[in-house]
Specification:
By secondary structure, the chain is of the alpha/beta class. The protein is built from 21 helices and 13 strands. Strand 9 and strand 10 form a beta hairpin. Helix 4 runs parallel beside helix 6, helix 9 crosses helix 16 and helix 12 crosses helix 13.
Length: about 475
């Protein structure tokens, strides 16, 4: 990637605080592989005074604190530290950094970039207290200091920095959550790399990899979506051979519990209640489960939501990470099959996956759907709706409802198709039953509209009149 894509606002904010005349403390967090490091190093290219990245501690490391301190010391040496031996504590390590910065100070802005900060906070290391002292006791007294910290362990960053109740309370001057690319950003990225892909295939790539820049960087020009996916995820030496396990080891202190929950959520599109998750995984229902679910939600792997018409106590948790969903459904059981995507792309199994995955893509592009409907300025609540069946009526699940403040509820039917979508008699009857069932739950002043979200639109015909509005791929790319 030769330039920053989809990060215009973030770059402007970093530039603004860089040019301020006071000490600045910038906190950046977001899902692993989303591009935090790249953003900082490119936006502040040539202007970083000191840069250090915490070390990921593999299992079996006997003294993680010492490993982190040694790595920090080597970074200090690389930037010109002289006259100090290897620090024995984090207090000493940050003192050495202060001395290095003092020697390098020429009056201009000094940027200190500490990447993967959560990795540096090993058990009983005293890191956090020393870090607080570094900001409160030294940085805050130097108007030309700009401290930038990043972390993929979002829950750690929020708890220990953003929402810190101790010495770092209210100290951050800029907080920034970095989100995955949108479909439009993905298109811009592929264009910048000279990778020719149709919007149809870009959406399919989004279904597999989400909008994660690192995963997109694995694509090679001249290859189809299917061939690229096979090379990245399948075969004897895929580029992302153990990515699923690495994701959780790198972010969470309890990766096995996190994976248990993710594996469970991958089995039901509508998600599970907290009680169901506790029973199925064996994770204690109390603080342990609550903290793990919160950590997964904060890192954007899962979504906490309340189905339409249900009480807040009936909230559910669903898997929303495209990569994890595809990995568990297809990669894990078939990774040795080097041509899986090329051989299976037209199969019924993949057709079923595309339908579910496209719904997730739509959830991730609700602002674009609202814009296509001309309601971007209307207050809305997006949710799913579980219509329970009984002996007299058929149950159903509506994967996206948009309840609007202007008394309209859009019932969104999402269909991924290789051509314009045709509504036949049976489909029309099914859709009418859903609309009628939804209308019965609404107050007399409200009405329901059927919105079709499809790849190439709905074919005009005898039964298409039921559709009130349409959203297509092109709208999702706006």
């Amino acid at each position: 990637m030769n330039h920053l894509i989809g990060r215009k606002n973030e770059v402007e904010e970093l530039e603004r605080v860089y040019r301020s005349s006071r000490p600045e403390f910038v906190v950046i967090y977001g899902r692993r592989r989303v591009g935090k490091t790249y953003l900082v190093t490119q936006a502040l290219k040539g202007r970083i005074t000191f840069h250090h990245t915490g070390v990921f501690i593999e299992e079996g490391i006997k003294n993680p604190k010492q490993t982190q301190l040694e790595s920090f010391y080597f970074s200090l040496l690389n930037y010109g530290l002289e006259g100090f031996s290897k620090p024995k504590s984090w207090m000493e390590a940050f003192y050495q950094l202060e001395q290095l910065l003092t020697r390098m100070d020429n009056g201009s802005r000094q940027v200190v970039f500490l990447d993967e900060l959560p990795w540096m906070d090993t058990p009983k290391s005293g890191f956090l207290s020393a870090f607080e002292g570094f900001w409160n006791g030294w940085c805050s007294d130097h108007d030309n200091i700009m401290l930038v910290v990043c972390g993929s362990a979002t829950s750690w960053v929020l708890e220990n920095v953003s929402h810190n109740k101790g010495g770092l309370y209210g100290r951050a001057t800029l907080e920034m959550k970095l989100f995955p690319f949108t479909l439009r950003n993905c298109e811009e990225y592929f264009d910048s790399e000279g990778i020719e892909m149709s919007r149809y295939d870009i959406v399919q790539s989004y279904m597999v990899f989400g909008g994660i820049p690192y995963y997109l960087s694995q694509f090679r020009k001249g290859l189809s979506f299917e061939s690229n996916t096979d090379n990245i995820l399948f075969g004897s030496k895929p580029r992302l051979s153990d990515e699923f396990n690495r994701l959780f080891r790198a972010i969470f202190t309890n990766p096995e519990d996190c994976k248990k929950i993710i594996r469970l959520l991958a089995t039901r599109h509508g998600g599970f209640s907290r009680e169901e998750i506790a029973r199925a995984t064996g994770i204690p229902y109390g603080g342990g489960l609550s903290n793990t679910l919160s950590a997964l939600a904060e890192s954007d792997f899962i979504l906490r939501y309340t189905p339409y018409g249900e009480k807040a106590s009936q909230e559910r948790y669903k898997l929303i990470d495209n990569f994890c969903l595809f990995w568990l459904k297809y990669v894990e059981p078939r990774q040795d099959d080097s041509s899986f995507m090329r051989d299976s792309i037209t199969s019924e199994i993949m057709k079923s996956w595309r339908g579910i995955a496209f719904e997730e893509v739509c959830w991730q592009h609700i602002p674009q759907i609202k814009r296509a409907l001309g309601i971007e300025g209307v207050k809305t609540i997006a949710s799913a709706w579980i219509m329970k069946g009984d002996d007299e009526k058929e149950g159903a699940q509506i994967d996206l409802l948009i309840a609007r403040a202007d008394n309209i509820v859009n019932l969104c039917e999402m269909k991924f198709s290789g051509d314009v979508y045709v509504i036949d008699k049976d489909e029309s009857m099914r859709l009418r039953r859903r609309l009628n069932a939804l209308q019965l739950t609404l107050s007399p002043k409200r009405t329901s509209h059927l919105t079709m979200v499809t790849t190439f639109g709905v074919s005009y015909g005898k039964y298409s009149g039921i559709v009130q509005s349409q959203v297509t791929l092109d709208h999702l790319f706006e």
